Amino acid sequence: VMINLNQKKSIAGGIIALLIATSCCWLPFIIIALGGASGWMAFSDGLEQYSGLFMLIGFSFLAYAGYLFWKKRKSGLMKNEVILDSVITCPECNFQSKEEMPTNACQYFFECSNCKKVLKPNKGDCCVYCSFGTVPCPPIQLDQNCC
Prior knowledge:
Layout: H1 5-21, H2 23-33, H3 38-47, H4 51-78, E1 85-89, E2 96-100, E3 110-111, E4 118-119, H5 128-132, H6 138-141
């Protein structure tokens, strides 16, 4: 199961929050080891009063990342098959044609077989299937980044 961008952000946010929350324990040791000044020690001591809040934030981020991972895994186990057929409707003439989507590349252009208009994806969409098809492209179905 692949980890998407939101899961990566949640995991990174959780790790950062936990590092800040526990800085009262490890930061003084590093500062002393490096011969640091007492000003940094006071800064670290000041963070200690917020450690509970930082831990709550950290655990929240990690819990959210776990939820996203569980949700992705559950949906992947239940829906392990990608729909490859999509009906594209031409916005110019409303002609519909059933097409098989490629699995190894995005289709940026599609020529309507009725009016010969070349379709391009709408702004914000990755391919013609996401813009004009009844089914989004395989990467979007799998909740992955499109080409």
